[in-house]
Amino acid sequence: xxxxxxxxxxxxxxxxxxxxxxxxxxxxxxxxxxxxxxxxxxxxxxxxxxxxxxxxxxxxxxxxxxxxxxxxxxxxxxxxxxxxxxxxxxxxxxxxxxxxxxxxxxxxxxxxxxxxxxxxxxxxxxxxxxxxxxxxxxxxxxxxxxxxxxxxxxxxxxxxxxxxxxxxxxxxxxxxxxxxxxxxxxxxxxxxxxxxxxxxxxxxxxxxxxxxxxxxxxxxxxxxxxxxxxxxxxxxxxxxxxxxxxxxxxxxxxxxxxxxxxxxxxxxxxxxxxxxxxxxxxxxxxxxxxxxxxxxxxxxxxxxxxxxxxxxxxxxxxxxxxxxxxxxxxxxxxxxxxxxxxxxxxxxxxxxxxxxxxxxxxxxxxxxxxxxxxxxxxxxxxxxxxxxxxxxxxxxxxxxxxxxxxxxxxxxxxxxxxxxxxxxxxxxxxxxxxxxxxxxxxxxxxxxxxxxxxxxxxxxxxxxxxxxxxxxxxxxxxxxxxxxxxxxxxxxxxxxxxxxxxxxxxxxxxxxxxxxxxxxxxxxxxxxxxxxxxxxxxxxxxxxxxxxxxxxxxxxxxxxxxxxxxxxxxxxxxxxxxxxxxxxxxxxxxxxxxxxxxxxxxxxxxxxxxxxxxxxxxxxxxxxxxxxxxxxxxxxxxxxxxxxxxxxxxxxxxxxxxxxxxxxxxxxxxxxxxxxxxxxxxxxxxxxxx
Length: 690
Hints:
Elements: H1 10-27, H2 32-40, E1 56-58, H3 64-71, H4 76-81, E2 85-87, E3 94-96, E4 101-107, E5 113-120, E6 129-131, E7 144-145, H5 147-152, E8 162-165, H6 169-183, E9 191-196, H7 203-212, E10 217-220, H8 226-239, E11 246-249, H9 257-263, H10 266-275, E12 277-279, H11 280-294, H12 305-321, H13 326-337, H14 341-356, E13 402-408, E14 417-424, E15 429-437, H15 442-461, H16 464-478, E16 490-497, E17 509-514, E18 518-523, E19 526-529, H17 536-542, E20 565-570, E21 575-578, H18 580-583, H19 588-596, H20 601-615, E22 620-626, E23 636-638
Parallel strand pairs: 8-9, 8-10, 10-11
Antiparallel strand pairs: 1-4, 2-3, 4-5, 5-6, 7-9, 11-12, 13-22, 14-15, 15-16, 16-17, 17-20, 18-19, 18-21, 20-23, 21-22
């Protein structure tokens, strides 16, 4: 409009905010109320004028900042455009926005002051906390308090960062002091703390963390009161979709990190917080059940079936969000509800299936009762199958197979599956390993590649089961310093082909697997599944139940990091190895047609991999082994050792991990690591690679 002045350029808004921060910091030493607040919350070190925080005090008079900024050469328009002051409607005077408040400067990722969040110290203001209004450089949904200061003064540590998301500025400063105590422990990960600026955590703020601190482990640590739990409820839908590690902390009732720091030594306070870390869905489940009781929506689940159904429906989706933590969550829910953990697990599965009507796979239960082949295998290797366009592994006379591998990563740039082939010309043994990372994050891809490589290498010199055990030990050691939530894990299938039936217990082939990768063969012209899925649905079928298709079909009872390892001897093939992305997307008739009519292994593998892309964007890997047809032998399962093992999972979309069953009837018990004296959270074990 005519007569309107142009808005001040961003450079002037940065300058006036910086000048205001210096003014507030210069007034901090004269305020006893500010000193008491900082001391009571254990954050008095933030008052250091040479430190990164520039905490200050806004005097209680109406025009002290305005007068100072005018004398420094700033116009009234610049002061109001920066949100530092306003023009009084009646008098037309320029007045200060912040008065009698503790001032916390908010900076952008370049550590430029863009605004303030301020705590009332007089007790007369309507709002305890007051923030800068939206300006050209201050958009609170795009900013996080504390991030810019810590990017400019990065915490000590090695490896991927840990980022605590707390409620307010005082909590950020408290966690920063705790980080200093944490950093005194050798070889710990760098610890950051940030807070939303008077709003819920937004997708844009999560993107900001991901851009500036890639690979971060995100931990929500809200106050242990009703307001903190309500904040967690609002944030959960956004935070649960974090692509990497994501956890939560259920702090003691009525306390926040600043309260804890003010009441105890920093080392004890950080230990207390670290000890309370749980998968985010577990924390949310506990909050949900507490809220159901508090609002009287449930009163006595032991007596009333309606209460049980209400509880199961309320928490079912949380089990899907954290499939790796289902065992611990079922036990925690059972304790809160006064029920058996197996009843909770069953009720959650049924509630989810009824809610979503999730379709199951088209594959029938595995036929594990087929008798071993009685045919006498030939003493020498079979004749080479003519497959001119398929790659052959080795040229020695002991070769017995021709194989081909095909991948389809869908719409993703990089996949989370791996396929490895090893051949030893001296012994004539060939090994194939296929691994499917659980989830879509980088840890899943790392686990799949490590598992396939290690399992194939060890199996070539030993047995497939030994290869899987070696991969398990290596991956658990590799991730031993990380919180188990969504750390790398995979389903793995290994096949060894021996040149003579006398080489290995009279069998030509030997398979070992953990998880839900599958191996198929052709028997009497029909597709036959050689392996048996390690899923909750199959386990329930083995116990004589008949579960309807649903979530139990994709909840794993075993993986490379924990649970049973199954083994199966097989006389001869052909064999089709694939991950769940293939056997869930490709109809059985198409799998059978490719396997039975295979004349070109590579062409068949390529067609199957492309077929998955026509259905969805799943990561698919197919491995075809061309050999003569023979029926599969009986599948057997070997127990793992009795030691408790750390297990982990991928993203919520994977919907696959530890079963709900008790340790007495299911896989080996799973435990979550606790904080150890003398060792920091996330501290890597000796020799861990980075």
